[in-house]
Amino acid sequence: MATKEYAGKTVETTDDGYLINASDWNEEIAKEIAKEEGIEELNDRHMTVINFMREVFEKTGEGPSIRKLTKESGVPTKELYELFPKGPAKKAARIAGIPKPKGCI
Question: Is 104 a catalytic residue?
Answer without folding.
Answer: yes
